[in-house]
Every structure is written in structure tokens, then in C-alpha cells.
Amino acid sequence: MTTTVYVDQANGVDAAGHGTIDLPYQTLAYAIFSMRVAAIETTQYQIRKGPEAQYDAPTQSAAKKAKKDAQGLEKKRLKAEAEENEARERQEKRERRLEESKKVVLAEDPSLPTPTKSKIARLANYRDKRVRVYGWVHRKRDQQEIMFVVLRDGTGHLQAVFTGQTNKTYDAVTLQLEAAVELTGTLKLVPEGQKAPGGHELVVDYWKVLGPAPGGDDAFTNKLNEQSDPSILADNRHLVLRGETASNVLRLRAALLSAFRFTYAEHDVIEVTPPCLVQTQVEGGATLFKLDYYGQPAFLTQSSQLYLETCLPSLGDVFCIQESFRAENSHTRRHLSEYTHLEAELAFINFDDLMTHVETIICESVDKILANPATAALVKTLNPNFTAPARPFKRMSYSDAIEWLNEHAILHEAEDAEGNTIKDADGKPVMVPHAIGDDIAEAAERQMTDIIGQPIFLYGFPAELKAFYMKKMPRKDGEEAGPVFTESCDLLMPNVGEIVGGSMRIADGPELLAAYEREGIDPKPYYWYTDMRKYGTCQHGGYGLGVERLLAWMANRYTIRECSLYPRWPGRATP
Q1: 73: exposed, middle or buried (C-beta count within 10 Å: 0-12, 13-18, 19+)?
Q2: Among candidate residues 122, 384, 378, 121, the one with its CA nearest the CA of residue 253
Q3: What was the pLDDT predicted at 37?
Q4: Distance between CA atoms of residues 510 and 42, nearest Å
Q5: How much is the average pLDDT of 515-542?
Q6: How far is 429 from 420, CA to CA, in rounded Å?
Q7: Which residues are paired to 152 by β-bridges?
Q8: Number of C-beta neighbours around residue 375 at 10 A
């Protein structure tokens, strides 16, 4: 008996149960593929291009091509069937292994030597000895009869080898990444030609899970991966920190702060700890986080500078490493609402001394990191092309920078008297050359630094662009008009931009009072700061360095958010 199978290339569906005139297939290849081998000779095919066309037998060439495609579909079916069978066999084997593992009870052999508890970083002293280590499962490779685990304890990584009974327990079969475990065994050098962290591995004879980690949908690898959206990474920052890159950045951060402290000590600069709750402003009221302090207005500090100045007569040169806060609605890759502020104040110096000091502290601290093999390796891992900055740093006046930007056709957005961007008829910002008095925009500043390709001290900014406490430069001989510049500087680094802002401070009491008045600041809350000019004033200056920005430069991070333990920016205060 002859069977007729219908194919409608426009409206058909390649699915089981189709092939009738009411439910046609879409392709001739699938129609042939769907027929039983015994029925192929008694089957005829009718095909059309669409509902407006008439059904007709396929051409000889079309039938030939369809048969070849059908063979391809059959191969795919057989392959899928084989894979399904293999998966089922693996699952059955895993279930058998799981059931068998429940019968295995692992006990520590009392006849073995008592293990020595050790951190991974200290294990080189215990080769060929029995040790006990604790940590988290960083990586795992299960080969049925043998399992390799890379353990992480915060001080380093250790490869552990599980064989025999240690690899047959229920905990071994169900072990997941990030589980907390206790491992005991003999530390052995890795076989020749093989590699492992530290050059050794732990041959485990006893172990146990202290804190299990989930598998399935909640498995660590399903929570995070390299393609995760930035918002997911931010929400799961507590898990991101377990990754090698994030933890290496934080290790380098710790090393950097330690290097700074050693360098300051070598230069007789003492560390102090100023308050974070304040009732005065440093950088302008618009970026203050305000709060109620037992019924009084107070703020989170923008800078510890004013307090550092008060320490000079008693402690001499001082520095602090403190959190600063800026209520600035900025989402750029180099801004945070809370950041680590390294600040210093120095007595009896001039403006040249200040810039030389900043350069010295940074370069000597970087040198310390590169001289230490462990921290140098961190830098090499994160930023293979990093080299210590050459000294002396280039110095460029604000006026020269304006000229340089114009010579290189780097423009900026025109603004009206209220500071709003002026746009053309198409709604695009009008771009104009820079002029003296302009606040050089971040983008232009960074573009200039990247082109020059070396650290730059940009100095001598107009007074109207800077804070009230900055010392003014004297006018040149014969100059009676024009802008007044300040003894202020920014240190710019390639790929990051500004990392340091500093200045000489006003040392004269009446001049400081005039600065309060000019800025509309009530001097009463600043009585203690004003007193510094009353009781033995001196020429002094200081600076603030953004730790996250400097770290981004050293570690070659795209955003400084990667350089903070739990970064805070507008809209982000969790976790």
C-alpha cells in the first residue's frame, strides 16, 4: 500500500506526527528521515512552496539532496541517542558510587605521626612531614580513582591528592567548590615534570568537610562567571572577593599601604587618626554628606587636612590613612562616594619642597613593593608591563597646560554663565578651545596625560577654581591685573588621571579670615583652625592621595571600584 507524505515549505512543521495534508512537514529531508526504512519504497512525497501553490512530486535533484540531508539527520539522532545513553550510564554510575560512598567511614590512623597545623604559606618547612591544613576548595578535578583539589586559605594555594578510601567517602563524592575543609596528610614534592603551587602537594590520608557548599543551581560557578553583568558582580561582591584577581588586588592594596607607612616612618612623618564626624567643610558644601549628630548638624569628612594641620606644632610632619566621603553624583570609573584618603601635612616647607616630597613618597613606596619578591609577583600578575615611574616627574603649569591642549586641538564643552552646556541646533555640545580660567575637564586632563605618557605635576591653578585655604602665588613684577594663581598642584598618572591634589596653605591669619568671607563661610566653627595662625604660624603645605586611584594605576584596573573592598558609589551601598 502506497503512503503519501506532504511537505509545505512555508507553513509545514518538522515534528513527529506530521506529514498529512492537514499537518504537512516543512522540509523533504525531515519527511524522509521520519519514515521507517521498510516504508521508504512504498512512500511517495508531495511538496509545495506555499499554500497558494499546488502539491507536486519533488524533482530528482531535490529528492537526492533531501536523502543526503536525511542521512545527516539520522547521524545526529544516533549521536544524540548515544550521548543520552552515556549520560544515563554516568548518572547510574554516579548514583551507585554515591550509595557505595555512604558505607565508607574514614577514620584517622592513630599510628601515623601527629600532624603539625600550618598555614599554606609556611608549608615549605614541612616537606616529607605530616601536616594539617584548613581552607576552601578553590578548584577540583575528579578522575574517579583519584581526585585533585586546590585548597585556598588566604595565605596561598595548595594542591591536595585524594586516593583510595579518602576519595570514596560520601563527602568526596559530593564535594563542591568553596566548601571549607580540613586536610591531613604528608607533604611531598611534586613529581618531576609536573607543577603545583609551591612545588609540593599534600597526599591526603584523612580529611573532613567543616562547612559544605551547595551544588546545582546554587553552585558557586552558577552564581558568578567572567561574563556576569556588572550589577550582579556588585551584588555578589562578597563572592567575587574569592577570585584570584580580586584577592590579588586587595593583597597589593595591603602591601601598598604598608609600604607607605614604612616610607613615612623613614622620613619622620607620624601617623595620626583624625575624626570622620565633623562640623566643618574642606572642599565645599555641595559634596557633604549631612547627618544629625545628637541634635546638631554634622557631616562625614571630605578630608582630614584641617585636623592634620593642627598636629604640626606638637608632632611635626603627620599623615593619616582615613576614609573620606563625597556626596558627588558621579558614576565615572574614577569616582567613589567613599574612598581611602592618604593625606599628609608638612611644616616649614615651600611649594617646590611639597612636590618633591610627594614624588619621593610615591616612588620610594613603589620601589619597596617591587623589591619584595612576593609583592612584585602580585604586580607582575596584575600588570605585567608595569615599571616604576622615572624621576623626576614632569612639571607643567596650568597656563602651559591650557596652551598644550589648544596646540593639540583638545577642546571642551562651552558653558553659559550658569555652568550649563551650550548645544548647537542638532542638540550636540558646542566644543571650544580652552582659555585661562577654565576648569580643565577630567577627559581633557586624562587625554593630555595619556599622550605625554608619564607622571605630570600640573600646578598653579587659578584661585577661583581652588579651595579657600590655598596660598596664592605672588604676582610677577610689574603685573597688576589678570588672574591670581595658587601654589597648588595635581599629580596626574597615565590611564588614571589625577591621583594627588595638594597645595601650600594660607599661613597668615588676616588672609585666612578674608578667605572665609570671600567664600561665605562662617569662621566661628573654624576657631580651632584659625588659632593655628595665632599661635606660631609657619609656612606649611600638604596633599591628599586617592589610594584606589594609585592602586588602579599599579594594578592596571579599568575602574577604581575594583580597588575597594566594598565600593560605594551613587545608588550602591550594599553589600
Answers
A1: middle
A2: 378
A3: 62
A4: 111
A5: 94
A6: 10
A7: 136, 157
A8: 19
Strand partners, 151: 137, 158
SS3 call for 24: coil
- Say how far apart CA 140 and CA 377 lie, in whole Å: 25
pLDDT of the residue at 407: 94
- Which of residues 280 and 153 earns the better pLDDT score? 153
pLDDT at 443: 87
Distance, CA of 261 to CA of 266 (rounded, Å): 9
Its pTM surpasses 0.90: no
Radius of gyration of the CA atoms of the chain, in A: 35
Which whole-number Å values give the CA distances from 378 to 250, 423, 551, in the listed order? 10, 47, 12
Contact between 288 and 525 under an 8 Å Cβ cutoff? The reply is no
Let me know: does 120 contact 145? Beta carbons within 8 Å. Answer: no
Asked if 567 and 246 touch (Cβ cutoff 8 Å), the reply is no
Q: What is the pLDDT of residue 38?
A: 54
Q: Cα–Cα distance between 202 and 140 in angstroms, integer?
A: 14
Residue that has been written with the C-alpha cell 519533488 in this structure: 58
Residue 226 CA to residue 440 CA, distance in Å, equals 36
| CA distance linking residue 151 with residue 140, whole number of Å | 9
> Which residues, at least 6 apart from 333, have a Cβ–Cβ distance to it below 8 Å?
558, 559, 560, 561
Q: Could you report the per-residue pLDDT of 103-141, keeping only the tens digit for each?
A: 999 999 999 999 999 999 999 999 999 999 999 999 999
Placement of cell 586516593 in the chain: 163
Q: What is the CA angle 516-520-523, rounded to 5? A: 45
Strands 318-325 and 338-347: antiparallel
Which of 431, 448, 436 is CA-nearest to residue 399?
436
pLDDT value at position 164? 94
CB-side exposure of 130: number of CA atoms within 13 Å?
14
Give the pLDDT confidence of 457-499 residue by residue, as tens digits: 999 999 999 989 999 998 776 666 678 999 999 999 998 999 9
Residue pLDDT, tens place only, 324-338: 999 988 888 889 999
370 phi/psi in degrees, rounded to 5: -75, -20
User: Which three cell numbers mark 407?
Assistant: 596646540
